[in-house]
Amino acid sequence: MNVQDIVNTVSQKAGLDQPTTEKVVGTIFSVLEHEAEGTSVSSFFDQIPGTDALAQKYDVMAAGAAAGSGGGLLSSLQGALGGVLGEKAGALINGVAALKESGLDMAQIRQAGETLIKQAEAAAGPDLTNQVLGQVPSLRSHLGL
After folding, report:
1. Cα dist. 106→59, 99, 124, 125 in Å?
2. pLDDT tens digit sequence for 77-106
3. Which of 53, 75, 94, 113 is the least buried, fewest Cβ under 10 Å from its Cβ?
């Protein structure tokens, strides 16, 4: 199973179009890439071909990654929190903002997140998937899982 298989399954199960699903999946993988530490996230990405490239395409820490980066209170808050809490918290904050700005409601984000986790478990194994997700415990709560 590769990352495109995961995108296709999430798209079907969550009822989302392909571009939106790709953004959601890429954003979640990017948060994991920035927040999970050590070899477990590398091993996890190695089990799902194409994951690294998709995470890079939707890099939550790239300049202007959050659509709110044009200004405003949310952008200021994201910048301040990211600066105070470091890159790890900034990645999660930017990722959650990107998911919300994609126009999805919480039910759609939850469905996409649940399906993504199930597909990742099938591809990389439940132990490795849970090890990576366990390094980013707040991600599950932000996805409503």
Report:
1. 21, 9, 26, 26
2. 544 444 444 455 688 888 988 988 888 888
3. 53
Task: Kindly tell me if the per-residue pLDDT of 135 is higher than 70.
Answer: yes
Q: CB–CB of 10/16 below 8 Å?
A: yes
Largest CA distance in the chain: 41
Stated pTM of the model: 0.82
The Cα 61–Cα 59 span in angstroms is 5
Identity (one letter) of the amino acid at 124? A
Q: Which residue shows structure tokens 């044009």?
A: 70
Q: What angle do CA 27, 122, 10 make, to 5 degrees?
A: 45
Give the helix ranges, DSSP H, for 15-67: 18-35, 39-47, 51-57
CA atoms of 84 and 27, how far apart (whole Å): 22
- Answer whether 61's CB lies under 8 Å from 34's CB: yes
